[in-house]
Amino acid sequence: MKCVDALSVLEQLAAGTASSEQGFSVLRAEGLIETVAPVAQTPLDDQRELLQKAQGHRLELRERIAQAADEAEVTRLKADLATLETKIRALRVHILEITEQQSVAEGAVQVGLRGWTLTWKGRELLEELSARRARLGETTLAQFQTEIQKVRSALADVARRAAVILKAISHKSADIDQAKGLPVADEVYARAAAVGLGGAAGDPLVLAERWLKLYQGLERRVPPTMAAVAAEALATHTRPVQEFGGLLTQLGATPAKATDDQTLCAILCWTEPDMETTIACANVLSSAFGDGPRAPAFLLASAECEPSDVVRVKAIEAAIAAEAGSDARMVACFLAISGDERAVERFSVRLAWLKRFSPDGMAITAAMLGLIDAEPVEVLDNLRLTASAIHDAKLSVGPVENMGLAAKLLLSLAIRSGFSLLPQASSKSGSIGAPGLSGSLPVPRLPPAALPAVATFHTASIHRWSWWAAHHVAHGHGGYG
Question: What is the residue extent of each domain of the chain?
């Protein structure tokens, strides 16, 4: 059965407009839809009245037990109370079963002589097919389900690798902070680094050990909040680490400590084969921007943009200023290099969805997700699958951080893999992350050189989300001020 046909049937059942059983047998065999047997209309009011009387009798028994002086009388009353409790539980279960059966029956669609409804599996497939409607083509249902399962398996494998890395670095990074007399950094930085390294090729324990050595050395030169992400960016490259210190100096950093902006610029240069050319290009772009941080210019330089592109960036910046706030320039840079003609429109859709998790820090993430070449609804559904893998591997604390780390993992895997979700949509192929992993994701708009940008700017956003989640008045440990 083709996906487009399955989607049509599922949508008709969900909307209650199905008029024939064509295709139902295939979907039923897959456990996507089911028939609903007629339900006897048992009066719920009678059952609720019986429950109310039993609960009233329970109160009476408790009072009598409290007032009884004779031990034998107390024993008898407690036995009666235990019997009554069993009856009350049975009544509650019966009421819930009747309510559920009647609800399913009322939601069923009558087609011919039978009532039909979607199963939970069918509803999930409906969401997945709807999100990828534009690229279904001639794909069969079996092919689609195989591809989706590959994505789930690949994400789960990468998340498990990240969990191994996190276990290896979490406590040791805190020991490094304490040994240097520094405040212990929030573990969110270690979790973010572990997620970023989880998709990299190589032994996860070797990556963890390399990250720890870099973290210990980099804390002397970069701000504490940037040490984890700088170590992450350097851990997956073979270039001598000593060159990073020289690069910071070249970018104007003092021997004592680099600024956040200088560290960001250095990380963006690190993977470039010709750093000198990138720096020169970034300086020209920075002059075109005028005052302000230089990181946006270095991001454009890493994407081989020209000074003329600054005009477009400024136009986008003006268009999204109200939505992006202080992040407007960086957001505009990501949208400009995505090459998407509908970049601003799609950015607004993604941002509106992400702001349901946190009102702050989501703009850059929404912009970076635009680097994945797919409609917003498909990107967000892939984000849902990734968030599930992050949650199952216990890599996040709370829903806000879960969604942030999921976005980072999704982006890094898409950039590393260059996959398309459906086989006929692209001729590109390869594996996701570490050797042996397979799966597919929408083709990214940028080459692997964009990976440091994802790690760099995502970590700053994750810090803001975590602060918001921890201090929001609805949080258990939050507070005012």
Answer: 36-112, 148-471
